[in-house]
Structures
1.
Amino acid sequence: MRTLNHTLTILLLIVTFAGIGQTHQKIDMKIDSLGNAKINVSMTMTATQWQVWLQTIGNNPAIMKREIERSMPAYFLGDYKLEKNDMERSFNVSLMAYGVCEVDKRGNWTIDTDQKDANLTEITDHKYMLVSTPPELGGNIQQTFTIDFPEAAKNIKVDKDTFGKTIFKFDMENSTAGFNLMLWAGVLLLLIGGSWLVKNVIRK
């Protein structure tokens, strides 16, 4: 979730100073079996917030993309898409964040929330909701996260890291393992074939 916090700070910090009262933001994170995440951020604003957002970021998607990449150097990002609804004064930003999940030394997959005692609600066995009001955004924006785990994720549980922050820990087979095995097998066959060809050339 640290990934999302950085993204949202860039997208919304200027809006926080322009608005009065609390606004709501929805963030959906759908994780795939490789540990990557499809992220959708949507929000409806007041008239003042909308004008400020359009002037700073909304009409400059290239600036938004560049700032998101600067704030998240540990991840490879792609598939950016920005949709705006002027009538509703709302927007939706979608992107792919690769390598969101981490694997510890014991083979456990983890996702951090970057929060202590996070307010989590289990919706289904593979879907959770987290409600947060980040102090870095002035307390004016309430964020509702949904985290959707893939079917391959097993034994999903809420735990804490060494700093006492809430994390998700789960098991998931690495679906790339089979591909890697086939790749190395192919390389081995190529080496064997190459050696056989060289020997035949030398004999002739």
Note: Residues 175-187 have pLDDT under 50 and may be disordered.
2.
Amino acid sequence: MSFAELILRLGVTFVAWMMIYMHLVLLLSVRAAPCSPTDFTAWKVSLFTGLLALGAAFSVTYAHAVPGMARTFRYFALPMLILLPWAAWITLPYLSATTLGSLDLCAVTMSSDSSTPINGWQRAWAPVQLGVLVALAVGGWRAWGSGLQPRA
């Protein structure tokens, strides 16, 4: 393995974990963002970072081909034990109220009734986030499991 490939594999894996945690922190703090019927910037950004995190979930094991790195990078998956259930707990009320119901995201956040019509992306927000969380759980499981394999 060349030095350039080694650095590329380590860099891609590290950046993938950072993108995953960036998305999780944003998802946990999106409810604290200013909420108005015309400004859903934080919600839209969380959709975009969700797509980035989805791609990152498939590349977290990229550095595991480097000897000894699978055991090192597997510990990056540990904070997900706390963050994933917390993020799912925050996202689930939006699934029932926005996707299956007729409330907009701000109305669910502020626990109020709203007659504001909701857009299609608002209905899709919670299912997309839950899908990303499942992909992150699978990626974290793969990263942790491949780090447990014995060295050759």
Note: The radius of gyration is 18 Å.
3.
Amino acid sequence: MARPGRRWMALVAVSAFTLAGCAFESGLNPAYFQYAPRVYDAKVPGRGAIEMSKAAQEESFSGNPTSFTGGGTTLTMPIGLITREAATTAFREVFADGVALVESAAGQAGYAAVVRPRVAAFDYQYNQIRNLGFAVTPIVEMTLSVSLSDASGKTIWERDFESGSVQGETYFLSGSPGEQISKTAHRALMGLMQQAADAVHRELRTRGSAADRSH
């Protein structure tokens, strides 16, 4: 019978081995967002625009984790597509007539506002230390930058929304650890996008109410 110490070492070795020297590729999966629609007291009149250039939509993240576990692995993820899907999903609840995805809003009229979302920073890790080596917890951290412009194209504000450390579901062994990171990244990004949507809704409703009072 193996002593407890040897069993612990064996589990660590197996878990680390499954993450050694691999390249993982994930895709867009809206089911990972765990999206719960917002119910606003009143939507912003008109239609909003989500502006993302073709290059922004095709942007891909590819990099290593910041953790020792899995340090030799690489994850590739279509961060632009995930951002696009999260933005169109979250912001369609803000505007009464939904949103349109445009590569450029320059010269286009008729939008109540233009929103430009972009993931400015992204890090991930396979955290094994917090589980004493017996399991792995996927953790992601990201920054979402959002620019809001009015109907004339004038910038109202630009803000960064920070996720902090977002933990996914802890697992013992996985044949697709990169997919566990992707699930957590989808959920974290949707959380940030809904924070941004709330901020945009508050801003535009406040401006609309002020405009009504001035007439």
Note: Strands lie at 23-25, 47-51, 61-63, 74-77, 99-102, 111-127, 137-150, 155-162, 166-167.
